[in-house]
Amino acid sequence: MEILAFGVQSDEKPLIEKAFAGKHDVRCLDVFLNRDTAPIAAGYEIISTSVNADLGGGVLQTLAAGGTQMIAQRSTGFNNIDLDVAERLALRVSRVSSYSPYSVAEFAWTLAMAVNRRVIRAAGRTRDFDFRLDGLLGRDMHGRTAGVIGTGKIGEAFTRIAHGFGMELLGWDVAENPACAELGMRYVDKEQLLAEADVISLHVPLLPSTHHLIDKAALARMKDDAILVNSSRGGLIDTSALVGELRAGRFLGVGLDVYEAEAGLFFLDKSLEGVDDDTLARLVTFPNVIVTSHQAYYTEDAVGQIIDATVQNVDDYLAGRRGDNVLVPARPGS
Question: What keywords is this UniProt entry annotated with (predicted)?
Fold first, then answer.
């Protein structure tokens, strides 16, 4: 059987081909799944998709009409999938429930430290042989307060790094993580965390209840010299409200690996055609803001685990098993 994989990065292709070798043929495409590309899947029983795929109702209907029966998404989040429509169409949908939490946690701290120590500005200067220190003043993390919103596996890994810096730890989540509590984390309400934390990092999924969790009111509660990091999902932050606060001169730094309107932009080269997203265009002009293109998960370790889980999801489907990663079962009783 040949499997069609959408949205495959050049670094991923040899890993995917190696993982499926000896089991199934795999055709890797660098294009992302959306309304325009969905017809390519005609005749493929199994497809694999990336985190930025459009798996809304219209795309799912096109896939089902073309003979697709199983979708293996190579990500943990699934807010891009209309699960109700998938169930109605009898499409089996699986995801990767977990992978290396250190990849994302370490990158979140990379963003935080880069904006704190003005690394991008400093590197740009030295390339021009400008070795002045003016405007590069950062601050120690030791003794300051880290606020972790969402203390699951990734939030816990982020907390352990903060603990290593010698920071005070505040957490907010629907349930406390004993491992974080053992590190000295105090669980407080969200308003207190926002008001007291020097570094705030988001590690919650994007759900209706968490959409724009960081809105204008939440931003207003934060310290003027706080650092805000989002390596989870772009929709957690009201970006227009964030731009307004940045224009007012607030925040020591903001590090964003995700953006709420990233679909159709991230993972693509737009350097020659430009971007007509005025909010993003304004966002990247602030000297205290770093925007990266949803790469926090992108390590050999994490990508390898994601691919291995995807292969297992395909094997489970073909064997009629329902694994832990199944979101929608396609076969009765599976």
Answer: NAD, Oxidoreductase
Return the beta strands (E) in 31-98 as ranges: 46-49, 70-73, 92-94
Query: 2-99+299-328: what CATH class?
Result: alpha beta
Q: Reply yes or no on whether 262 is catalytic.
A: yes
pLDDT tens for 215-265 read 999 999 999 999 999 999 999 999 999 999 999 999 999 999 999 999 888
Residue 233 is a catalytic residue: yes
Task: Kindly report, residue by residue over 270-301, the tens digit of the pLDDT.
Answer: 888 888 899 999 999 999 999 999 999 999 99
What tokens appear for 157 in the block?
A: 């890994």
132 is catalytic: no
The answer to whether 153 and 105 have CB atoms below 8 angstroms apart is no
**What's the Cα-to-Cα distance from 204 to each of 4, 149, 231, rounded to whole Å?**
30, 7, 10
Which residues are CB-contacts of 16 (< 8 A; sequence separation ≥ 6)?
5, 8, 26, 28, 48, 307, 310
Lookup result for tokens 């832990």: 324
Write down the catalytic residue from 12, 156, 245, 262: 262
Token couple for 202: 């988001």
Pick the CATH number of 101-291 from 3.40.50.720, 3.60.9.10, 1.20.58.110, 2.60.40.10: 3.40.50.720
What's the predicted TM-score (pTM) here?
0.90
Which one of the listed residues 74, 95, 233, 250 is annotated catalytic?
A: 233
